[in-house]
Write a structure and sequence with these properties.
Elements (H helix, E strand, L loop, with lengths): L28 H12 L14 H13 L10 H7 L25 H12 L14 H13 L10 H7 L17 H11 L11 E2 L2 E2 L1 H13 L7 H4 L4 E3 L7 E4 L8 E7 L2 E6 L3 E6 L9 E6 L1
């Protein structure tokens, strides 16, 4: 289920970020941008971002590096920038050209390399390195991605596949803005509604009783053949962040502990379906006085 992408990490429009190594003691606008990216990923804990690279920033970088199996030195160099979604001289998903031309077998273009990088991050592209050539490995990766997202598996990257990948066709766009409904999206919501009234059970993951993450995991597996992690915190690390949720997106909330601790499936009209500890599987309003101030954001899986 997709709209227009960020590739699982927030994209930054500055041409400078990625052109220099960032480390403790520095003061630079790139540091503020780095903090914003780490904050969206859940690593930078300060309430506001600054241009100074201090101990809080270093701690966030170290934790990010550990999570991504990088050397935890707290220095933001080439490999860490790449893991964050930045690389010197490379175009990001919000470039003005990517998503504007159909990509298919036999083509050689810089957009193909970018396509491969996105598919690689999503676990579909298995080549040892990315290139500008659209060959059989790329086509196979595209077909598998299309099958997973309920698209026609023709191996051609056109409008709908770009949407599912999250690529914007509007220059400068960094988050999903376009409405998109795939067969799997409809199926997710339809399946979720079948379990209205099922009681809340802590640790529950079956129709005899669900907790919030168990409900989401069960629904996505049954309706879209998508396997999600068992906890909300881990699910929150998946998918693509979107500015405005569309039907089938996941919406996340901060409740009993810092970070994402509750989630539901957006069904439209500012409403979401979830396994509530007080009401079981039910529908709530995003504008509810309890949920509204606890809203963290939405992800497209």
């Amino acid at each position: 289920m997709a709209g227009t992408l960020l590739v699982s990490s927030p994209l930054v429009s500055s041409a400078a970020l990625g052109d220099q190594t960032l480390k403790s003691g520095m003061t630079h606008s790139d540091v503020k941008q780095l903090q914003e990216v780490l904050k969206k990923k859940g690593y930078f804990k300060n309430s506001r971002t600054t241009t100074y690279f201090g101990t809080v920033t270093k701690s966030a970088v170290v934790n990010f590096q550990k999570k991504n199996r990088l050397s935890p030195d707290g220095i933001v160099g080439k490999n860490t920038l790449k893991a964050l979604g930045f690389a010197k001289g490379s175009s990001t998903v919000n470039s003005s050209s990517f998503g504007k031309r159909t990509l298919k077998s036999g083509m050689t273009h810089s957009d193909v390399k970018q396509l491969q990088e996105i598919l690689k991050k999503k676990g579909f592209f298995k080549g040892s390195r990315t290139t500008a050539y659209f060959g059989s490995i790329t086509k196979s990766a595209v077909i598998n991605f299309q099958k997973r997202h309920g698209l026609t598996p023709d191996g051609i990257v056109g409008k709908n596949t770009f949407r599912a990948l999250g690529s914007s066709t509007t220059a400068g766009s960094s988050v999903v803005k376009a409405a998109y409904t795939s067969p799997s999206t409809t199926s997710v919501v339809t399946t979720a509604k079948k379990y209205m009234g099922v009681p809340y059970v802590w640790g529950g993951s079956t129709p005899s009783g669900f907790d919030c993450s168990g409900f989401i995991k069960y629904v996505f597996e049954k309706s879209a053949n998508i396997s999600l992690p068992r906890t909300v915190a881990e699910i929150y690390k998946k998918g693509v962040r979107v500015s405005t949720p569309q039907v089938g997106d996941l919406v996340f909330f901060e409740t009993y502990k810092p970070g994402a601790s509750h989630a539901g499936i957006y069904i439209g009209n500012r409403q979401f379906i979830h396994a509530s500890s007080s009401n079981g599987v039910s529908i709530s309003s995003m504008d509810n006085s309890y949920w509204s101030p606890r809203y963290l954001g939405a992800k497209r899986i």
